[in-house]
TrEMBL record:
Domain EngA-type G: 3-163
Species of provenance: Coprobacter tertius
Gene expressing this chain: der
Family named by the database record: Belongs to the TRAFAC class TrmE-Era-EngA-EngB-Septin-like GTPase superfamily. EngA (Der) GTPase family.
Binding site for GTP 1: 9-16, 56-60, 119-122
Protein name: GTPase Der
Length: 163
């Protein structure tokens, strides 16, 4: 299947929006309500003559944080298993939550290349908020806006450099 990039993170951080931007599709369902992507979505991305597959994870209906934690454990384990690169998405507008800490802890133990994605950086000012993500112990946050495209080209340059 070639190079695989998995997008992980808690609900509503913008994983599906990022998937749609990278694949230039509207395949993944984006919704104001958390957890609306039902299944793992697979798409193809072409960047600078390189092709890779991208997986949008996190498609389940969430009623409680407990149920969600079990699901995210499964999805993150699968991503670590099958992906060559992991995009861990967090939200600069809301900051970190316990679930972000939980996912970060699992990812820190993995040997796969991980990009910490500070999504929803729609304005330059919001870049300052990303400083709090250093705490997650996953290196520099990559500020992007999946909605307006800020930073996504630079991110793709770095992602394909890992292949
Ligand atoms: P997911 O649950 O992680 O897949 O998140 P979604 O992609 O479904 O997005 C959840 C909400 O965040 C939707 O209302 C999106 O429009 C919004 N969103 C996603 N990316 C951005 C972004 O870069 N900026 C802003 N302002 N909102 C975003
Ligand atoms: Mg989604």
């Amino acid at each position: 299947m070639g190079n695989i990039v998995a997008i992980v993170g808690r609900p509503n951080v913008g994983k599906s929006t990022l998937f749609n931007r990278l694949t230039k599709s509207r395949k993944a369902i984006v919704n104001e309500v958390s957890g609306t992507t039902r299944d793992r979505q697979y798409g193809k991305v072409e960047w600078c003559g390189k092709e890779f597959s991208v997986i949008d994870t996190g498609g389940w209906v969430v009623n409680s944080e407990d149920i969600f934690e079990e699901e995210i454990n499964k999805q993150v384990a699968l991503a670590i298993d099958e992906a060559d690169v992991i995009l861990f998405v967090v939200d600069v507008m809301t900051g970190t939550t316990n679930l972000d800490d939980h996912v970060a802890e699992i990812l820190r133990k993995s040997k796969k290349p991980i990009f910490l994605i500070a999504n929803k950086t729609d304005t330059n000012e919001l870049q300052y908020n990303a400083a709090e993500f250093y705490r997650l112990g996953l290196g520099d946050p990559w500020c992007i806006s999946a909605i307006n495209g800020f930073g996504t080209g630079d991110l793709l340059d770095e992602v394909i450099a890992k292949f």
